[in-house]
Sequence to fold (198 residues):
Amino acid sequence: MSIRHPVLASSPAPRRTLLAAALLALSGTAAAFSPTVVNTNITEADVRSAQEGWGKALIQISEDHASGGLSKAKATAGAVLDAAYGYNMGVVLFKPTLAHGQQTFRTTRAGALAYFVGDDKTYPDDTGFALKGWKKYEFKNAGVFINGDLALTQGHVMLTDKQGKVTVVDKTWGFKKDEKGQLRIVLHHSSLPYQPAK
Fold:
């Protein structure tokens, strides 16, 4: 039993021939056409690349501060926030390491920028975490959870300053891909490791 195309079946023979040729031509064009593909599934390699990129950006802000002062560091930090964080998607859940009180949680770009480089009267306690002369960055994930376009990580970040002192922080990140397939930080939680009383 054959199935006939409804348009072709009701058309006179010459029209059926033309339509069949047109359909064949279109199917060939579709096969040759290569559309842009946006893949919102996150891979472990994506996550590790984003974590490495964050550390390099932190060191770059410190270096720009040393070579060009606060204005250069602030410009770099702003560019990092725009490129790496998800403020273009909505709220970002950012809890910095050394924040406290009513300013513990920073859900705005301005709050994050103040934490990294200070110089904001709205956040008078911020001295600029990224301005502390960081020279080396490492991370060690305790676990990575990936579900489609959302990835969560938890582990340690180790930062070395210009005196060689190493600071270890507990870090949780949440990454999500935006509509262009760009990985964005939507959750950033840092805290100093718990030290039990002796």
